[in-house]
Amino acid sequence: MLPKRSEFFELLAAHSERVLAGANAMLRLVTSLGVSKQDVAALIEEINMNEASSDQIKADLLTMLHRSFVTPLNRDQVYKLTLDIDNIMNAVQDVAQAVSMYNVGEASRESTELASMTVDACTRLTRAIASLKERERSQDTVNLCLEIERIEEKSVAVMYQAIKSLFDREGDDAAALRAMRMRQFYSLQEKVLRASKKSAQTLEEILLQNA
Questions:
Q1: DSSP assignment of the chain, as one string?
Q2: What is the pLDDT of residues 101-147, one digit of tens each?
Q3: Domains parsed from the chain with CATH numbers
């Protein structure tokens, strides 16, 4: 049986919802640092589960693309958007794994702010993808994409300020090592927002080509 037109949009929406769930878990993970090791471990596992679910949805989407003679959007556009969404989830998982890898024991104000901005961006992305099938809401979708881009631009400033403050403080070798670890951690957090921005730009391209 050939897939229905609506199934593509449903799977894209489900894919973005997994990413949003992962982003929410990441925010809770960051706020749990230095508070509860048990919660941290559980939230890392929750993110891994969302990533596995996201991978399955990606596989289903790609299989559907191969099976379909006609798709509701350009085949290359669906493929690109699927990979872009997947890259966000992978970046979220990288942050979760870095908590253990870099021995991040507590959350800074900037780290919490970046995690919160990620949730804001992913919330808007989920709404934008959900409205993709409704052409009459194309301007709403564009506006959501522009908001994601603005959030990412602000996140770069937060990241740079966070990194600057790390190296403004004097300390011993252990403090310097921690500063280098946290610089990488902040960079990974901003990478999630950068991937969200790329997905938003792909959505804008889709809207322009299907106007």
A1: -PPPHHHHHHHHHHHHHHHHHHHHHHHHHHHHTTT-HHHHHHHHHHHHHHHHHHHHHHHHHHHHHHH-SS-SS-HHHHHHHHHHHHHHHHHHHHHHHHHHHTT--S--HHHHHHHHHHHHHHHHHHHHHHTTT-GGGHHHHHHHHHHHHHHHHHHHHHHHHHHHHHHHS---HHHHHHHHHHHHHHHHHHHHHHHHHHHHHHHHHHHHHT-
A2: 888 888 889 999 999 999 999 999 999 999 888 776 688 889 999 99
A3: 5-209 (1.20.58.220)
